[in-house]
Amino acid sequence: MDAQTSFLDTLFDRGILHESGVDGLYARSALFEDVIRRFEDYVIGLGRDETDEAMVFPPGMTMADFETSGYMKNFPQLAGTVHAFCGDTHDHMALLECLATGKDWTDGQKRTGLALTPAACYPLYPIVARRGALPEGGLTVALQSYCFRHEPSKDPARMQMFRQREYVRVGSADEAIAFRETWKRRGSEIMTALELPHHVDVANDPFFGRAGKMMGASQREQELKFEMLVPITSSDKPTACMSFNYHQDNFGKAWNIRQRNGEPAHTACVGFGLERITLALLRHHGLEPAEWPDGVRKVLWG
């Protein structure tokens, strides 16, 4: 049994996670959710004084905005869309027959105009764009969303349905870059306060296909993405628990978000993988939060 499966089975046995029969789709216990809530409160407190507003998004976004984001073009292997029955009485009879005979009934499903949200910041950009030019000094938004990525795995830190807590900076290039650098520093301070082993490294998104390899190499070369890595199920391949991203003006151009001077806005974000950070805490400090180190408990419980 490998380390991923062993840790996952332990979480099941202790009732911290509950299996569904599908890898990467789990119910969370009250203990698990309490740790997430306390970590979120901690991170929200760190950024409260510089946050202009906060939003929480549902796990779905419009298909139009999903396509505008470029996600389907760059990461088709991870994407999920929402389909539903849209037929008439005749189609319903055919559906019932398929269900009764064990045949595939999904052929009668049609697209609904919704996609599953792949990254917490994506639904924000069209909202900002509809407001017109940015305020002087740009905008900083705290947000949270459930996200979906189709990568079933026995690794408990690689869930298909998971939550991201993010701060997003929308403004000039200098403002976006400074924001990212500030949160890279804060990210290390957070992990030190939580007494978790960690290091930051340059990274790239999992772009698909031959062209994707070139895009990933370019992303790394320009140092547009960094990740906070923490060993959870492997010391050799630690898990990305935070990411620090500078998108240049890609989203500004895609959604026509403008600075006060009329130039396309630049964006940056810091993302916290809430389930992954909780799993890291459970892995390194034990499955009973009441027994965690005093310093960690002071940070999260006060």
UniProtKB/TrEMBL annotation:
Q: Which GO terms describe its molecular function?
A: ligase activity
Q: Which CDD domains match?
A: Gly_His_Pro_Ser_Thr_tRS_core
EC main group: ligase
Which EC number(s) does UniProt give?
A: 6.2.1.n2
Keywords of the record, alphabetical order, are: Ligase
Q: What is this protein called?
A: Amino acid--[acyl-carrier-protein] ligase
User: Which species?
Assistant: Stappia albiluteola
Q: What is the lineage of its organism?
A: Bacteria, Pseudomonadati, Pseudomonadota, Alphaproteobacteria, Hyphomicrobiales
